Amino acid sequence: MNKITIAIDGFSSTGKSTIAKQLAKKLKYVYVDSGAMYRAVTYFAMENNIISHTFFYKDELIKRLDDIILTFKYNTSLGFAEIYLNNVNIEKEIRTLGVSKLVSKVAEVSEVRKKLVEQQKKFGENKGVVMDGRDIGTVVFPNAELKLFMNASASKRAKRRFDELIKRGDQVTFEEILKNVEYRDHIDSTREDSPLMKADDAIEIDNSDLTLEEQFDKIYTIVQEKL
Ligand code: C5P
């Protein structure tokens, strides 16, 4: 069957990765979580005292970019690929609120974006890829056969992220998660380099009132028309 590229963009916590994983599984495509890559660079910067909530040594991060090797390895029991930073699995470490609070600042740096976009484009060279992020349909794969733009109300999105973190055992409040989701949306959509925006040819899906099943059925119908 004809293999295509599927680009999924949207605001924070709109369930992009959930639908991307479901589609990749169903189609036997590769799933790439581009947000995990920005989170991994942020984690590296935090671990190396390059960024905190009080400072950000941007030039130092730019100098150290070659020390950051990101790879994905498929985990059969999870059914998706986990991210490794210099051969260490950091899938859990990058999902904290601490990383979420700093990642959008790191993602504003053009040199960081250039490095990650280059790697992301390579992942898509042979098609058969589902990638989610903020600039996938606009910058990484402007020629993707299918572009989706996901949206949902900020409170629904914060609730989803809050439930996820609580389930993991993290100590967070709903208010701080909501604040973080809104803060990231603002920086992500107003930054100079590759701001989050809907590609002209993207199909917008508001999933505020859709169950996961309804959402999958709706999107899978659209996918089938493209195959
Ligand atoms: O998708 P996720 O919420 O994990 O992404 C974390 C952050 O990484 C986003 O808020 C955004 O600042 C940045 N990002 C980006 N471009 C992408 C994916 C993520 O700038 N393609």
UniProtKB/TrEMBL annotation:
Organism superkingdom: Bacteria
Predominant location category: cytoplasm
Enzyme class: transferase
Pfam family, one: Cytidylate_kin
UniProt xrefs under PANTHER family: CYTIDYLATE KINASE, CYTIDYLATE KINASE/PANTOATE-BETA-ALANINE LIGASE
HAMAP family associated with the record: Cytidyl_kinase_type1
Descriptive protein name: Cytidylate kinase
Gene that this sequence comes from: cmk
Subcellular localization, as worded in the UniProt entry: Cytoplasm
Gene Ontology terms, MF aspect: kinase activity
List of residues binding ATP: 10-18
Keyword Manganese belongs to the record: no
Key words of the record: ATP-binding, Cytoplasm, Kinase, Nucleotide-binding, Transferase
Catalytic activity: dCMP + ATP = dCDP + ADP; CMP + ATP = CDP + ADP
CDD domains, per database record: CMPK
UniProt keyword Nucleotide-binding present: yes
Entry EC no(s): 2.7.4.25
Domain Cytidylate kinase as annotated: residue spans: 6-224
InterPro entries named among the record's database cross-references: Cytidylate_kin, Cytidylate_kinase_dom, P-loop_NTPase
Family according to the record: Belongs to the cytidylate kinase family. Type 1 subfamily.
